[in-house]
Amino acid sequence: MKGIRKYKSSALITGASSGIGKDFAYELAKHGYSLTLIARDLRRLNEIKSDLESKYKVQVEVNSKDLSKNSDIKDLVEGLKTKDYGLVVLAAGYGTGGQFHTLDLESELRMVDVNCRSVVQICHQFIQNRKDNTPRGLVLFGSLVGFQGVPWTSTYAATKAFIQSFAEAISGEYKNKGIDVISVAPGPVKTNFADRAGMTMGNAQSPDGIAKEVLSQLGKTVTVRPGFLSKFLGYSLITLPRNLRTFVLKQIMGQMVFGGKG
Ligand SMILES: NC(=O)c1ccc[n+]([C@@H]2O[C@H](COP(=O)([O-])OP(=O)(O)OC[C@H]3O[C@@H](n4cnc5c(N)ncnc54)[C@H](OP(=O)(O)O)[C@@H]3O)[C@@H](O)[C@H]2O)c1
């Protein structure tokens, strides 16, 4: 892949212990990147590290951090001051499903911290770090649900709207200053996401290959909808007025969260 050769070949990946973040770890290792992998589950991170080091002969560091904890975010940001990554991929995130007032408030607030607060803090340090003119890349995770309000996953959809807006804005600020920013807006993907959110996804795409497509678009577009399903759902919805999108997604999310009884 020609595009990613322009970045210094080292990357920080959050949410690397499973799903889409893990796919990024494999894709970047394949291209010779040295990696720092972040998530809470150190055992899974270490398994991935051993596999990557033996398959691709790259250097992999792992670091267990809970990005809902401000102290852990601060540690990570502190570490960033002395590390010069070419790419930062912020895939850590989770969602919840249900009627808003019935959901655990602490978990909703932790979600805002993981999905938004940690992203703002890490991006701020990463961008400040850049002392030379070599290009840098920043991969953030929005979602199909981030383009309108979505009943039955209200806080999660709002966190993804935040990321979509944030990515578009900082992309505009740094576009001609050597920092490429992209927002990934997947539709349903078969990862641990649905289980943790208590959702059932009937139709979902595999996470394999998402990283390859996203990285091929980095620097060319601000939003990428990876895979056929994300494109099909995303482009069909985006033509509708915002209130109609909310209505349609309410039906879909109702199926995913309550099996249609919502
Ligand atoms: N799957 C989908 O349908 C879908 C659709 C649209 C957008 N997305 C977005 O894509 C991104 C990747 O999700 P995925 O589908 O790959 O889900 P996943 O398989 O559940 O992966 C989520 C990753 O985030 C990490 N994580 C969760 N909470 C964390 C915390 N408090 N601190 C640090 N790391 C944490 C998890 O690791 P640990 O559990 O080890 O901490 C895991 O590595 C997320 O931002 C998600 O919102 C997913």
Automatic annotation (TrEMBL):
A GO molecular function held by the record: oxidoreductase activity
Can the keyword Transcription regulation be found in this entry's annotation? no
Give one Pfam family, short name only.
Answer: adh_short
- Reply yes or no: does the keyword Oxidoreductase apply: yes
What is the designated name of this protein? SDR family NAD(P)-dependent oxidoreductase
What family does the entry list? Belongs to the short-chain dehydrogenases/reductases (SDR) family.
Q: Which InterPro entries match?
A: NAD(P)-bd_dom_sf (IPR036291), Sc_DH/Rdtase_CS (IPR020904), SDR_fam (IPR002347)
Alphabetically list the UniProt keywords. Oxidoreductase
